[in-house]
Amino acid sequence: MSQDRSEGDLRATGLALKHDREWDYELDRIVEEVADRDAETVGLQFPEGLKRRGPAVADDLRDELPDDTQVMISGQPCYGACDLDTYLMRRTDVFVHFGHSPMKESDKIIYVPLFSNVDVFPIMEQALESELPAPDEDPEVGLVTTAQHMNKFDEMRGWLEERDYEVHTRKGDERLTHEGQVLGCNYASAEVDADQILYVGGGKFHPLGLAMEHPDKKVVIADPVNNAVHVADTEKFMKQRYASVHKAMDAERWGVIFCTKIGQGRWDQATEIVENNDDAYLITMDEVTPDRLTNFGMDAYVNTGCPRITTDDGPQFKKPMLTPQEYRIAIGEEDLEELAFDTFHGTW
Amino acid sequence: MSQDRSEGDLRATGLALKHDREWDYELDRIVEEVADRDAETVGLQFPEGLKRRGPAVADDLRDELPDDTQVMISGQPCYGACDLDTYLMRRTDVFVHFGHSPMKESDKIIYVPLFSNVDVFPIMEQALESELPAPDEDPEVGLVTTAQHMNKFDEMRGWLEERDYEVHTRKGDERLTHEGQVLGCNYASAEVDADQILYVGGGKFHPLGLAMEHPDKKVVIADPVNNAVHVADTEKFMKQRYASVHKAMDAERWGVIFCTKIGQGRWDQATEIVENNDDAYLITMDEVTPDRLTNFGMDAYVNTGCPRITTDDGPQFKKPMLTPQEYRIAIGEEDLEELAFDTFHGTW
């Protein structure tokens, strides 16, 4: 049974898929839960990059489930376990969230982690050769990765230890499920006693936050997806942050965003600002986008929701968009030199 | 006390606003409700065009309310009374929805209608001279308007009757609050015994739907906001609808959208399609946008939510987006000649 009809339905053609199935959707576990709970409705939520697989997963589930089970797919944007579709969750008997590790366990939710099957060791080898100091120079190295490669974490550690590195890892805080795991908003697992951190994973999103949160450490990126080794460079981003803070110093009216997504709310931080500034207004929303803010016509905004909207999407907003600490700097409560990456802790 | 700080705060300058206050936000009624209910939190929701006034309204409210009352402004998009911010409504003691007439009364919600103070009669005069037949030719005329001009409806009727027209009006169905009122998705108030309908109001959005829903009638638009008279022309839109239906005829996989906005859900229509088509998938979302659908990679979509997303925004979607009836035409269950404007009835 193909789980990838999105690349063409091969069932009736006599052909087989040319490559191995990349993801294990754990359909058996879902089917079992539906039976156990006598569920009539099943909600499925996929992150953006996997939404295209949704219909094929729904097909395979419908083949296994009783005929009268209603399968629904969330069409809401989804960028993390902080971003559960609570509407669909409340209205379905079984709710399945794919692709992220649990931020908080709940009977209502089945989390299905999706692990990459890419081989990480060739690119780790390259990282060692080109960017990491040799173990006889500095053997201490921190090791972190994302949920996608978590299944290989112990192997990665062993591989480094075989090469005489002393590998430092930790679990981080309660927002993180696994030892060595990072999120785009939380790098507590990298608070280890080493001057260099090896990040194994795809893309620049996670290591950029990691480098901003730990500016004292060298962050070496071994990217097995794009087959590349980099050292994270935060300069461009830090310049953008300084520029935004400077622009916001003239602001008279502030929009203070409280994000209504289940794992992105920082109520105390949002209300504290509004209570202490008569020219600050509390605005509630789920998706924080330039269009939505433009309509309010404020001079500047403080985003207490996802920090990455502020740092990564910030330049797309027409008015300066600051983190809570950057706001305190802009109004003179803290010094510019103290500017640090905004991280998110706790769950909900 | 100015209710319009968004155009510059004149309180401390000794100047007065040059024009009359345009809107009455009924702050006294809100303050009274807060006292009656001992409310600690107040949520305010404005339609897109009035969001810019939000901060000034919040200022005026905060001046009147006890110091510890928390005022919050909804940052969610809002296009009608069908589009209440249910998150904010559930989490505030008093929830105020500005600018739309009630779709359904509820103790939880204070609806504050906002009436335009523009003079409608000069443009009605012009409409009579240029587009409406003289009363001795055809005295029967239907009269409709939007919530914004509802406060002048009786005067409009009287004005036409003085000029010897026989004015036909009706209340429409339960989705409509007032006699003669139209919504973008419901023109039941225009089902009157007259071949011509006079629509008094701004913009082309409402009369376009009106003309599509009543193709047998001549729809004359008297637009006092833009000071213009037109006859509604649906040709371009109808061509787009035909083109979309034709393109969708080749679709193999269908995304069927169930809209989760409180007044935009048509569950029975959505589930009926999915139950009868193995290649149709139920997708739930609030805002229906091209970006959100692109990620699913279906061949065509059926939108059971707001009909105006389909007809007005349709061309922005990368794949054909059909109304439920258009879907039935595309799969051969109905004839193309039967194609009619999709309207929305009932509340929630």
Automatic annotation (TrEMBL), chains A, B:
Keywords: 4Fe-4S, Iron, Iron-sulfur, Metal-binding, S-adenosyl-L-methionine, Transferase. Pfam families: Diphthamide_syn (PF01866). Gene3D superfamilies: Diphthamide synthesis DPH1/DPH2 domain 1 (3.40.50.11840), Diphthamide synthesis DPH1/DPH2 domain 2 (3.40.50.11850), Diphthamide synthesis DPH1/DPH2 domain 3 (3.40.50.11860). It is an enzyme of class 2 (transferase). It catalyses: L-histidyl-[translation elongation factor 2] + S-adenosyl-L-methionine = 2-[(3S)-amino-3-carboxypropyl]-L-histidyl-[translation elongation factor 2] + S-methyl-5'-thioadenosine + H(+). Pathway: Protein modification; peptidyl-diphthamide biosynthesis. Its cofactor is [4Fe-4S] cluster. The keyword Nucleotidyltransferase does not apply. One of its GO terms (molecular function) is metal ion binding. GO terms for biological process: protein histidyl modification to diphthamide. The keyword 4Fe-4S applies. Catalyzes the first step of diphthamide biosynthesis, i.e. the transfer of the 3-amino-3-carboxypropyl group from S-adenosyl-L-methionine (SAM) to the C2 position of the imidazole ring of the target histidine residue in translation elongation factor 2 (EF-2). Belongs to the DPH1/DPH2 family. PANTHER family: 2-(3-AMINO-3-CARBOXYPROPYL)HISTIDINE SYNTHASE SUBUNIT 1, DIPHTHAMIDE BIOSYNTHESIS PROTEIN. This is 2-(3-amino-3-carboxypropyl)histidine synthase. It comes from Halomicrobium mukohataei (strain ATCC 700874 / DSM 12286 / JCM 9738 / NCIMB 13541) (Haloarcula mukohataei).
